[in-house]
Design brief:
Blueprint (H helix, E strand, L loop, with lengths): L2 E7 L3 H14 L5 E8 L5 H8 L4 E5 L4 H12 L4 E5 L3 E3 L3 H11 L3 E9 L16 H8 L2 H4 L20 E3 L6 E5 H7 L11 H11 L3 E11 L1 H4 L5 H18 L1 H34 L12 E5 L5 H11 L2 E5 L23 E6 L5 H12 L4 E6 L4 E3 L4 E3 L1
Length: 399
């Protein structure tokens, strides 16, 4: 068997259903298996997914094992020459797996491969290429110098942001959202470290692959990853879990720095978490005291790109969910600029979703054209006529 795809699910059945829909097309011509580990979801994920994607193998856990343990459970059962760790909130282009596997076949020293992850607005996710978070690199990131000097070989190493997006490149750290690895490399360096419950395990494994004499690569193959928009990186939970994972990594791989760095890192964790909480409370207090006007969210505009044959089903979904919507033909967006794609609507809100009829498009072509046409100005959304289901970065709507 050529490839084993491992996905860990927790209460995101509709997003995972979309991921598996894209994966089914991307796996054509590849001898592969797909293993989904469900981490004790309470949304009926397994029963639902078994009906819509019966070709997948499901492993249901009675408890939430965390990301590392759940992935390891499936990896130990896998039979592929390569193993792909894939997040359920991703959408994979049809060409990605074939081209990534061909690259690894042609580069026998490659232990792992990451890809060009897109945010929901078509822009590149910085997590696509990363450097080893040594104590110095971690400090530059926490101090904000990584963002301030994005082309600096020293300060920007955390995201390796000096690398071009459109060419393959050697990198150090791959994202766990899409991490394609050679099974032989995993046999040599070991599986994910289960001390990491969530976050940091991909950094640790990538580093161990490098230390084992293998190479990690970035390939300019596009996938969509919702996490770039949906994760509230200023939240207390994210800050504490992420930076505690970084602390585990430093203690494990840089023992000679651990005493020196433990206290500053812990201080940074609680400082960032405290600032996050204080910021939220400050905004609430200002609203209560009428010092600032409360933010009233505008209804987003949904621009449907579909054929006349499917327009009635679109209207049904729009009316049921009370959406503000306009319609374009399925292909007109390809020739016109993003600003003109709003169908002539007046008072266009800040948030605009470009909704694509997935009976008319391929993911790979859509990602490329959407990034070029709308990059950073609109959000991408997918409409599936057969289920009359609309999937955005923040919600799933049924017709």
């Amino acid at each position: 068997m050529k490839l084993s795809v491992v996905i860990v699910n927790y209460n995101v059945k509709y997003y995972l259903a979309q991921c598996l829909h894209s994966l089914k097309h991307a796996l054509k011509g590849i001898c592969a298996e797909v293993i989904v580990v469900d981490n004790a979801s309470v949304d009926g994920s397994v029963d639902y997914l078994k009906q819509v994607h019966p070709w997948v193998r499901y492993v249901a856990s009675d408890t939430n094992l965390g990301f590392s343990k759940a992935n390891n459970l499936a990896i130990r059962q896998s039979q592929g020459e390569y193993v792909l760790l894939l997040n359920p909130d991703t959408v994979v282009g049809e060409n990605v797996l074939r081209e990534a596997l061909a690259f690894m076949d042609g580069h026998p020293k490659s232990g792992g491969v990451g890809v060009r992850m897109l945010n929901s607005d078509g822009t590149e996710a910085m997590e696509s290429r990363r450097g080893i978070p040594t104590p110095a690199v971690a400090f530059w990131k926490m101090a904000g110098l990584c963002r301030r000097f994005p082309t600096s070989l020293r300060f920007a190493r955390y995201y390796m942001s000096w690398l071009p997006w459109d060419r393959p490149a050697r990198i150090e750290i791959m994202s766990g959202a899409f991490c394609l690895m050679r099974k032989r490399a995993l046999d040599e360096v070991g599986l994910l470290d289960e001390d990491f419950f969530m976050y940091g395990e991909d950094i640790d494994l990538s580093y161990r692959i490098l230390k084992g004499g293998w190479e990690n690569w970035y390939l300019p193959l596009r996938i969509l990853h919702y996490k770039g928009e949906s994760t509230q990186k200023s939240s207390f939970r994210y800050v504490t879990v992420f930076y505690k994972a970084m602390l585990i990594f430093v203690r494990k791989h840089f023992r000679h720095f651990s005493r020196l760095m433990s206290t500053p890192l812990q201080m940074a964790i609680y400082l960032k978490a405290t600032c996050s909480i204080m910021g939220v409370q400050w905004e609430k207090w200002c609203c209560r005291m009428h010092l600032v006007e409360p933010v009233v969210k505008e209804k987003p505009l949904f621009v449907f790109h579909t054929s006349d044959a499917h327009k009635d089903r679109c209207l049904q979904l729009v009316e049921k969910n009370g959406l503000q919507a306009v319609f374009e033909s399925a292909d007109s967006w390809k020739e016109r600029g993003g600003a003109k794609e709003r169908g002539g609507a007046k008072n266009v809100p800040e948030t605009v979703y470009q909704v694509f009829d997935m009976s008319q498009h391929q993911y790979a072509d859509l990602f490329r054209r959407f990034s070029a046409t709308f990059g950073g100005r609109s959000l991408i959304a997918f409409w599936y006529p057969e289920e009359n289901r609309l999937v955005t970065n923040s919600q799933v709507l049924m017709g």
